[in-house]
Automatic annotation (TrEMBL):
The family this protein is said to belong to: Belongs to the leucine-binding protein family.
Every Protein kinase domain range: 15-265
Keyword terms of this UniProt record: ATP-binding, Kinase, Nucleotide-binding, Signal, Transferase
Region (Disordered): 267-305, 333-358
Name by which UniProt lists this protein: Protein kinase domain-containing protein
Binding-site list for ATP: 43
């Protein structure tokens, strides 16, 4: 929670505001106290929304929706004022974590807990449907856990089934991975209560196994699997598999009605409780993931005790922290004005804490980390103009040129500083060894700087480990590191495949993991934004590289017709990048052609001929270095002289050597800087060259910033933070302005969506042009 800021109101209606809970997509959320002493969450609405024609009518409708639903398992609306200068609504405050946070932090729930969860959510949805509504976004982020049962939140997109004006076909509403096939196909008029049953089945599967029934990765792939493929058998708890398969039937008419689903879950829970009572003495109760041989816990309806003890303890801690605020007047502090704050005139670039938009439509639960507005894929289609750049700065004073004394020596009279072990998990000998070793060396320089700071509360001990680029080795390494209680956090892995190999072990152990070169969308963040909670992915999602492509094509090249090449060898990410680029170009009034090439052999001459016959004046290629070089050579042979662009997948010496003269003029968009050219990183580049005898490789400077960012997460109130879970939580609470960028988490967006940079091939080398919105072109 954050103190109130200058410019924040002290009251809204009858509610006295105590703290900021954060900023969501609609506005600021406050923790507040009613005259009777009750604690509430009060959400305000941004003035930009309030001034839109028809908004207040829609806001009243949302309020009416919430008031129609009568269930103890739905967070109740307390009050609202749609006609106030700043519209607001207040709901009961639930101090529990979301189901998403719970599973990510503590692992899957036991079967008895899953059944209890299912019964209560089925009752909640029965109340929703009885009011003539369909929730449309039943997902783990919209389910809060309390000692007596779950709470369903967020009716911001709940609409009556017959409200066709609000559910028009062609618009997908919901979160991939938890929406129904009819939602995935955007069949607005056909979406009814069975759609919520499908989503509930996905939620219960996730709660019991920690796995999404239709997999992770990019949203397009998840949507396709939802529509056409069967659920992943590993995502379904064995004891509930038949029932959940019925819920996940593609045909809505074949899904069970909520009463039958509730009765089946309740009946089986009672059977399980009875079986547990007859267990042999001395047999340990099951508290692990669903599907374990033993599973004890309360039967449905027994109230408290349905959650694992660590979750209950977390709820109690949060409740206690909130209750202490209700009895004292909050202290307002000066802080940068927030554009979402009522009456604020701050610029859109002002820094402000945020919470996930998924958690603030009707309630807010947890304190939010500091964050700042940035590029999200929901708002991507405005990228033809600006994208909220955050320029990196600072980091100019380097310990190796100014230090005195011995590195790691504590100040006079101080106690010896503790060592915090950070494991470097990377590819040091395999196909990604160039990037892996560059990251390791960049991290080493950061650790040496930290250890030389006499007043720092701890010393980092960086221990390198090599997975050789092998996912199986990465998995084994991750399991070994998580069993080592001395390891506090992990930097790495280097590549996507090894990250996926290690992810399950790291997630289960809630190991804090910071990556700088991994681009794995675990669960459709473009809609849900809930990657596993202990992971800080500092690499921008590659699909967002569409932003610098669009800006270059519009502002520098003034392209009128763009030929986009979706290289299927890159999977869904290439198609998504091309699709986003094409949509943004269309909104900018520019024409484009999107074509796909197979993952196998490409007929480069034919592809170049198609570019010429389309009369394109620019091309964007999404493949790797070898394939981009083949295309570049064919384009040059065809006489094409227009703008040629590629992404970081093709960036590197391999492209320059293979393409030769055909490489000249190509523009590359990447997520990494050239530290030798970037002013804030030049000292780092010089020190790297002196220490390692070569220029910094890709991601070396980013790895340096990652270690400094991790050091900030391991420090609180001047003391070292040693517990893994606490470090993982702080990854989303701290910010570090480094030599490449400002590293911070932005609720609903992830880390560093602005960190994208332009290069151009000149005189046989890559010339760094800068951050894509500030790139200077001669």
């Amino acid at each position: 929670m954050e103190p109130l800021r200058t410019g924040d109101p002290s009251r809204l209606g009858r509610y006295r505001l105590l703290r900021r809970l954060g900023v969501g997509g609609m506005g600021v959320v406050f923790l507040a106290r009613a005259p009777g002493g009750a604690i509430a969450a009060v959400k305000t609405v941004r003035s930009s929304y309030a001034q839109e024609p028809g908004f207040r009518a829609r806001f009243r409708r949302e309020v009416a929706v919430a008031r129609q639903v009568d269930s103890p398992w739905v967070v109740p609306l307390l009050d609202a004022d749609a006609d106030a200068e700043t519209p607001w609504l207040a709901t009961s405050y639930v101090p529990g974590p979301s189901l998403s946070e719970t599973v990510d932090t503590f692992g899957p729930l036991a079967l008895t807990s899953v059944r209890t969860l299912g019964v209560r959510l089925a009752e909640a949805l029965e109340a929703v449907h009885a009011a003539g509504l369909v929730h449309r976004d039943v997902k783990p982020g919209n389910i809060l856990l309390a000692p007596d049962g779950p709470r369903l939140i967020d009716f911001g997109i709940a609409r009556a089934p017959e409200a066709t004006a609000l559910t028009s076909s062609g618009v997908i509403v919901g979160s991939p991975g938890f929406l129904s096939p009819e939602q995935a196909r955007a069949l607005g008029g056909e979406i009814g209560p069975p759609s919520d049953v499908f989503s509930l089945g996905c939620v219960l599967a996730f709660a019991g196994t920690g796995v999404r029934p239709f997999g992770g990765g990019g949203a397009p792939g998840v949507l396709l699997r939802t529509v056409y493929e069967d659920p992943d058998p590993d995502a379904l708890p064995d004891a509930l598999a038949p029932l959940l398969k019925d819920c996940l039937h593609k045909d809505p008419s074949h899904r069970p009605a909520l009463p039958r689903l509730r009765e089946a879950l309740a009946g089986r829970a009672s059977e399980q409780a009875g079986a547990d009572e007859g267990a042999e003495a001395g047999e340990a109760p099951g508290t692990g993931p669903a599907g374990s041989a033993r599973d004890t816990g309360p039967a449905v309806g027994s109230g408290s005790g349905w959650l694992p003890e660590p979750v209950t303890r977390l709820i109690n801690d949060r409740a206690a922290a909130v209750l202490t605020l209700g009895a004292v007047e909050p202290t307002q502090v000066s802080a940068p004005a927030d554009p979402a704050a009522p009456g604020s005139s701050a610029s859109p670039g002002s820094s402000a804490p945020q919470v996930s938009p998924d958690a603030v439509t009707l309630t807010a639960v947890t304190a939010a980390p500091p964050a700042a507005p940035g590029v999200s894929r929901r708002r991507f289609m405005v990228l033809g103009s600006t994208a909220g750049v955050v320029a990196a700065g600072g980091g100019g004073a380097w310990w190796w040129s100014t230090r005195s004394g011995t590195p790691g020596t504590p100040s006079s009279g101080a106690s010896p500083r503790p060592d915090l072990v950070v494991a470097f998990h990377g590819d040091l000998t395999g196909p990604g060894k160039a990037d892996g070793n560059a990251q390791l060396n960049g991290a080493r320089l950061a650790v040496e700087q930290i250890d030389a700071e006499k007043d720092h509360p701890f010393r980092f001990r960086l221990v390198p480990h090599d997975d050789g680029g092998d996912p199986a080795r990465a998995d084994a390494l991750a399991q070994r590191l998580t069993r080592d209680a001395g390891v506090r956090a992990v930097l790495g892995p280097t590549g996507d495949a090894c990250f996926l190999g290690a992810e399950a072990a790291y997630t289960k152990a809630a190991m804090p993991v910071v990556t700088v070169s991994v681009d794995v969308d675990l669960d459709g963040r473009s809609f849900g934004y809930d990657q596993f909670r202990s992971h800080a992915a500092l690499h921008v999602e590659r699909s967002l590289l569409a932003a610098p492509c669009v800006r270059w094509l519009s502002n520098h090249a003034d392209a009128r017709k763009v030929f986009l090449v979706d290289d299927r060898a890159q999977g869904d990410i290439a198609w998504t990048l091309c699709d986003l680029t094409q949509r943004a170009l269309r909104r900018a009034g520019r024409d484009s052609v999107l074509t796909s090439v197979p993952a196998g052999r490409i007929d480069y001459a034919s592809l170049a001929a198609r570019v010429r016959s389309a009369h394109a004046d620019a091309v964007v290629f999404t493949g790797d270095a070898a394939r981009a070089a083949g295309f570049a050579t064919a384009l040059r042979g065809s006489g094409f002289t227009g703008t040629r662009m590629a992404t970081e997948q093709a960036f590197g010496p391999a492209f320059l050597s293979a393409a030769g003269a055909a490489a000249t003029g190509w523009v590359f968009v990447t997520s990494f800087v050239d530290p030798a050219v970037r002013p804030a990183a030049r000292a780092f580049a010089a020190a790297y060259r002196r220490r390692f005898g070569a220029a910094p490789g890709r991601y070396a400077a980013e790895a340096y910033d990652a270690v400094r960012f991790l050091a900030a997460a391991c420090t609180k109130d001047g003391a070292a933070v040693r517990e893994r879970g606490a470090i993982a939580r702080r990854l989303r609470e701290v910010a570090h302005t480094g030599i490449t960028r400002t590293v911070r988490y932005r609720a609903g967006q992830g880390f560093n969506n602005d960190a994208m940079f332009d290069y151009q091939v000149t005189d046989g080398r890559f010339r760094y042009l800068g951050q894509y919105e500030e790139a200077a072109v001669s």
